[in-house]
Every structure is written in C-alpha cells, then in structure tokens.
C-alpha cells in the first residue's frame, strides 16, 4: 500500500493485514498477538479511542471485567507503541451518574497512564457523559497533562489544546465535546422538524469552522491539527447500542463539514469502527467492547496515528482482543444442544449466549428449560432465552435479518418505534417520518410527565 491516507478506507481485515505487514517481526508481541509499531524519530503518536461506556451492563450483566481487560490492553498498547497522546472521543461512561466502580476504574486507569510515562490525554464528553461530572476534576487532571472537556467554552481559542504544551506544540487538538442543543441553535416556537434539523446541522458546521479558524494560526506555523467530535456523520453505519443523539435522530452532518485544516478528525458515537463519508482522515474508532448483540461480529479497534513534519503521515488499526464473545443461537429445542456445542469459545471470559427457541415446547420457564443444554459448556453462559418463530413476537415485522427482534428494544421505545416505521412506513416521506417520530417523542414525554404530575396538560398536537 503506497499511501495509507489516500487509499480507500480499508475493511477491518485489510487494515489488520496492513498493520501486520508493517510491523517488525522481532519486537515484543502485544497482548493482541501483534508487535509494537516502530515509531519514526520525530513522530508525534496519537492513540484514538472512544465509546468506552464504563459502567455499562448487558441486560443485568456487568461488563466491569471486560472493561478492566480493555484498559489493561490500552495501557500496554500506549506503552509499547510509545504513544504521546491519548484521545478519547466521548462516552467515557455509560450514564451521567455512573456507578462508583466505573468511576474508580477510570481514575485507576488515569493513574496508571500517568505512571506509564509521558503520555498526555484529551478526553471529551459524549452524549452519555455528564459534562459536569467529567469536568469536576478538570484542574487536578490538567496538572497531570490530562485535558478533560465537558462543555464548549465561549471562545474558540479555548477549545484548542496544544500538545505536549503551548511552549513547543507538536500537535494541536481542537477538543470539541458532544454539542448540545444550546451550543447549536436558538430554539423558536413553531419551528418545523426540518427547520430544526437544518439549524442543528448548520450549528455543528459553524462550530467546526470556528475551530478551524482558531486552529489555522497553528496550522500556518506547521503544527498539525486534530479535531474531536461526538456526533453522527450521514451514511455511517450504526448499531443497536447508540442512543439517539439529537431529537428524532436529527443533527447528522456530512463528512465535508470538517474543514481541511484538520489533519484528522477523531470521532465518537457510532460503535462500529469506520471511516466516515469515505474520508480516511475522518474516523470513528468505535467502542472497544461489543455493547449489543448487533455488534457481536465486529472487530473492535483503537487507532494509532503518526504526525510528522506538520502532517498526518500514517494511521493504523490496532485490534482490541475480545475478552468475551457475544453470540446468538437460534433453533428448535432438539437442535440446540448441537448448536450450543459449536458456539462454545475459548476467550478469557465465557461467551454470553442468547438462545431463541423456535416453536418452544410448553414450559413454565424457558430459561430453566435451556439452562441444562448450556451447562456442560464451560465456555458458555446463558444470559437470555426467548421464544421465536411464527406466532412469536418477531412475527409483527420487527424481526431483523440477523435474528434480533423487538424484545431487544423493550427498554428503548424510540428504537421500537423507529423499527416499526422502517417495517411499515414505506409509503411515508422523510418529512412524515420525522414528524411521526417527533410526535411519538412528545407523547412519551407527556406520559412521563403525567406519571410525575397527573394534572399535566395534553400536548397540543
Ligand atoms: Mn457511545
């Protein structure tokens, strides 16, 4: 491959093959089975990751063990590849008020990172993070060269983080967190959905233009610029585990909204690693863990970037070793023993399996019926059993091609509604769909409000 920056965005398999081909054969292996990437003299090396979702559960199962293994891998990758700066593009935590164990995991990681050498960090808030929670320790972390950005400062010049420091910067990071409605538009009553969408998209583009303008001065002095973002780029591939970012999925921007001043745009929000809009310099690192069954077959990665001579000179994908596999098994009761035997895996932690039983035999508890079939396999753990097939809940047109169905979404009514629109709304225009989505959201808000105060007035439309 002549120039990795100009080449079409590689598939995961290609990206990995490229890394393997680039690595010296004699160096110490990484946990993933790969050797560290030799760093050219004078290069400034960045590791881009996002969407950790610390504190996340799958159903009721904790992912703490998997996160611990990922963070250990990340430290090792940073150390062995001589990374100069870590960039985390949002969704550090899964919720604005994360469990204490997750908060401890985060600070323990930063403490180890500090102990590992001179790696700086730029961490921005995603739509799942509480900006205030993330920024509370901002000053103490800044003294450790860890820059935490939860909210957008008033002046674009204050969005810029020169690394390793302002005296002799080798990279400037335009650190934009997830942009909230108030950062993007002035709400006016009576605006249509399309007007709101346009205002959001224009607001996002304007913020990146302002960042580019502020960074332009550094760029003119030969310092490369990396921008962060936590948003949706049109045409990129989502999965089931991202929460809708703006009302009704509005606010998706084109990859061309990032000015050329940015040598690289480190994105978060979508959980599949991918180049956005076919641009190799605009990238989602993806989540390091499969956060839902829809990501079960994804190869998870972090990205390594080298900046030299004022430009991005190389980028590589580093595969995150999966500590645990997620898998779905579907079949008639009598077929399941054989299918489950084939699904057993040898990862560090047992594979979590969701079993869909076609035409299930009458029983009080499907989980208890399936459990004995899973028990003989040490590498498997049953986390859900449910009925499938004709007449089952999936028959209403919501069953996906990959076998997932609406039960997956019971905790997310907006996703159920979106899938119903997809299944039954073929005659609807995009405007109609957006209006229906909006109306559904209003109704849900109204019902939630009614539960809190039963006298609330009904929505006016
Ligand atoms: Mn996320």
Structure description:
With 461 residues, the chain is α/β, with parallel strands linked by helices. The chain has three domains: 12-319, 4-Layer Sandwich (Purple Acid Phosphatase, chain A, domain 2), CATH 3.60.21.10; 324-389, 2-Layer Sandwich (Double Stranded RNA Binding Domain); 410-461, no CATH class. It has helices at 12-22, 64-80, 100-115, 131-135, 138-142, 181-184, 193-220, 336-343, 366-374, 413-424, 430-452, and strands at residues 44-49, 57-58, 61-62, 85-89, 120-124, 146-149, 160-163, 171-174, 225-230, 264-268, 274-276, 279-284, 301-308, 311-319, 326-332, 351-358, 380-388. Strands 6-5-4-1-13-14 form a six-stranded mixed sheet. Helix 10 runs antiparallel to helix 11 (430-452). The longest helix is centred in the middle third of the chain and has 28 residues, at 193-220. It starts with 11 loop residues before the first helix and ends in a 9-residue tail after the last helix. The structure holds manganese (II) ion.
Question: What's this, in brief?
Answer:
The protein is of the alpha/beta class and 461 residues long. The chain contains 11 helices and 17 strands.
Instruction: Look up the CATH topology of the largest domain.
Output: Purple Acid Phosphatase, chain A, domain 2
Any low-confidence stretches, pLDDT <50, length ≥5?
1-33, 390-409, 456-461
Strand content: 15-25%
* Approximate helicity band: 25-40%
Number of domains as seen in the coordinates: 3
Distance between the termini: 57 Å
Number of helices: 11
What number is the mean pLDDT?
83
